[in-house]
Structure formats: C-alpha cells, structure tokens
Amino acid sequence: LIMDLRARVEAIEIERDAKLAQKQAYNSQVAQLLSLFKKAEGVHKNGKPLDAIAAYQKVMTSRLPDPNGYKKKSERSIASIKKQMNEKTSVYQAEAEKHYQASNIKEAILALRKAKVVDPGNPEIPDKIDRWTLELKKQMMTLYQEGILEESFGNVEGGETKSGAKDKWKKILEMDIPDGEYYKKAVIKLKK
Q1: CA-based Rg of the chain, rounded to a whole angstrom?
Q2: Mean pLDDT of all residues in the chain?
Q3: 159-192 in b/e burial notation, b at 16+ Cβ within 10 A?
Q4: Distance between CA atoms of 177 and 188, rounded to whole angstroms?
Q5: CA nearest 106: which of 73, 143, 74, 139?
C-alpha cells in the first residue's frame, strides 16, 4: 500500500513537473513573440515604414502563441503605415501634377522622386518619372543646341536684344534636374 502511494505521489510530481516545464516553454514562446513585436514597434518609431511593415509581418507570420493579440496589433499597424504611405504619396503626386501643369517639369520629377522614396512599390510612379524625364531631356537638348549655335556664331555673352550661349546654359541649370545629361553638359560649358 505504501509503495502504491509512493508511486502515485511520484506520478503526481512527474505530471506537475511536466506541466511546469510545458508552462515555462509556453511562456518563453509568448515572450519571444512579445520581443518580436517590441522590435517591430522600435523600427516603426525610427520612421522607416517599409522596414516596419516587414518587422510587423514577421510577427504576423510567426507560429508562436499569441494570447495577448500581438498579431492583430501588427496587422492594424501595417494597415496604418500603408494608409500613411498612400496619403504622403498622394500629396507628392498631386504636387507633381500641379508642377507639371505649370510646365515646371523639374519640380514635378523631384516631387515624384519623393513619392517613390515613400512608396517604392507603386508601379505608376517610375513610369511617370521616365516619361517626364524624357520630355524634359528633349526640351533641354533643344536649349543646349541653341546654346551651341550661339557659341559657334560668337554670341557667348549675349546682348540686350538677344540671349547668348551662357544665358541658354544657365537656363538649362535652372530647368533641368541635377542629374540630367544636359545639366552636366551645361555645367561643363559654363566652366569653359
């Protein structure tokens, strides 16, 4: 009878130890998920939206137990970040359209580049940048060629009635994007 009681006590102790170990493992996994979530929040606070989305997605795709709802919180955070990105992108795109309508293609392209930084996954932004850059390049090519013609006729400085080659190249510096082909050529010509 005593041996039977001892066996029951040992079985109860083994079961209690197993439950304790299981509970500790579960708590450890919950703590790992909390750590992932805190890390994602830290990335979000640093102002890097794409990195924050990736970090929150790690939380959501994790197979760790989630008794505190961190996966739902991550989902809401991703939705919020995407909404903010879309709002910023829309503002930049509207600004770009306004500049483009005012024939200020340089500022329009720069605004679209800002939008692309905010939302690099937006497929319409690079296409618009390429189209507008090509259009600007054609305009700058015409100005540059006019400057070359003025230079070949000896009209470098220009006069009161007619602009010279320098004036054309300075206009290119004002109108072209800083990494534009004709911007660089105009800088070289003005240095000479």
Answers
A1: 32
A2: 91
A3: eeeebbbbbbbebbeebbbeebebbebbeebeee
A4: 15
A5: 139
What's the CA gap between 1 and 3, in Å, rounded? 5
How many whole angstroms separate alpha carbon 163 and alpha carbon 171? 11
Which amino acid, residue 74? S
Q: HSE, CB side, 13 Å, CA atoms: give it for residue 177.
A: 21
Q: Which residues pair with 34 in a beta bridge?
A: none
Query: Is pLDDT at 160 greater than 70 in this prediction?
Result: no
Confidence band, pLDDT 50/70/90 cuts, at residue 150: confident
Q: How far apart are CA 3 and CA 38, in angstroms?
A: 52
CB-CB contact of 187 with 179 (8 Å): no
DSSP 26-90: HHHHHHHHHHHHHHHHHHHHTT-HHHHHHHHHHHHH--S--TT-HHHHHHHHHHHHHHHHHHHHH
Q: Is the distance from CB of 172 to CB of 162 less than 8 angstroms?
A: no
d(CA 62, CA 46): 23
Q: Could you tell me the two tokens for 137?
A: 């390049």
With a CB cutoff of 8 Å and minimum separation 6, the contacts of 109 are 96, 129, 132, 133, 136, 177
Query: What's the average model confidence in pLDDT over 23-42?
Result: 94
- The pTM is what? 0.72
